[in-house]
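RECORD TYPE: protein structure
NAME: Aminotransferase class V-fold PLP-dependent enzyme
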Amino acid sequence: MSTPLDRLRELQAADLPVHGGRTLAYVYDSGLADVDRVGREAVAAYAGSNGLDPTAFPSLLQMENDLVGFYAGLVDAPDTVVGSVTSGGTESCLLAVQGARDSRPDVERPRMVVPSTVHAAFLKAAHYFGVEAVVVPVGPDFRADPAAMLAAVDADPDRTVLVVVSAPSYAHGVVDPVAEIAPAAAARGIRCHVDACIGGWVLPYAARLGREVRPWTFAVDGVTSISADLHKYGYTPKGTSLLLHRTPEHRKPQYFAYADWPGYTMLNSTMQSTKSGGPLAGAWAVVQSIGDTGYELLSREVFEAVDAIVAGVTDIAGLSVLVPPDSTLVTLVTDASCDPFTVCDEMGARGWYVQPQMSYAGHPATIHLSVSAATLGGVADFLTALRASVAAAVAAGPVAVDPDVAAFIESLDPVALSDADFDGLLVAAGLIGGDDLALPDRMAEVNAMLDLASPRMREALLVAFLDRLQRPNR
Ligand SMILES: Cc1ncc(COP(=O)(O)O)c(C=O)c1O
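PREDICTED:
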């Protein structure tokens, strides 16, 4: 009879591989099997520990302070810096917004100014915390436009509690001009958060390796907080990110304390209360194992892989790099001979996961690559697969969506649609076939159709789809 662990392994076989460097989104692979083992064992050892109370579990407090201290040394942090370990990038971003909002209790209807490329986590924060997000289009280089950002601030400076920039942005992999925005925000008494969730653990080493990196750390006047995920390029197990503040004063609104009930006084520095010590211990053990010289080496490897991919793509007709990458994310764009969605499917068929990104505000649909250190050994194979995938996509021609279907989708108002309408649409879109909810192997047709829908319609359709996926097995 199979054990639960046997069954777990069988279930996991359906998932994307987390090791091997062939999954170029969602996971980040150092390629260091021993380090991964140490991380897993640390997670297991602390799975039952509770990060709710650092006086009851002082080892967790020590590990958190060690991690913040290590990272502070990478981002030119002043002696006053403080920080917390959170559950992931989204929680760090949420807390940056919540803290900014609550630092200004005098502001009745707070707003924040963000570039259009800011991670969706900030729009989630706006939604959760009732902060208006003023979204400013980026410039032609896909970077935040300082003049436009500051004009948006100056349209209502008294209500503006936060300005956000990215280092780098997820979709295009470029670093915003932090030095042109943060000091100007500071001059107006407004916080500036740098979202380095995905770049925070490689950009410091990129600079050390002599690569050109625009300033983005606490060395830039006016940067008040930085988020940097351990579970991305810290190569730690999932479930950890860092949120650093320039001073304890900046962090203070992040604390939640409640004593006015009959139980223990609740005191939290992050959104969770009871939380497993596992991810923190796993992160600590991995950072201790890799160490500063290890991260430098991993960064050397990942940038070597990025450079080889960028150079290799120039030789593939029909494909190009959208914008030279500032970090470890590469954004590819196809010409009219093929479409990016088919290329993604073809790559999948060849054992490589690359991520489709829909068109947005006049920017074309693209292919996202989060390159890992472990990808370096497979770059030649990757480029061979990419060349073959583009050739197959050119041979198939761009996915054509029936013009009538396209016109219908464009005319739909998601707010006015009923559940039955959504069911019909999910069937039409190929997202549901009869009772079978599994995604089709090839997603190009579905993606091409979704690409035509408005962002609101896309959201509504995918929510309807997820809602139908998340039903109990009985
Ligand atoms: C720039 C940036 N910010 C925030 C996040 C959100 O991180 P998470 O998925 O860990 O919540 C991501 C994730 O890719 C990111 O790239």
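COMMENT: Residues 88-90, 93, 119, 121, 166, 170, 195, 197-198, 229 surround pyridoxal-5'-phosphate (CB under 6 Å).
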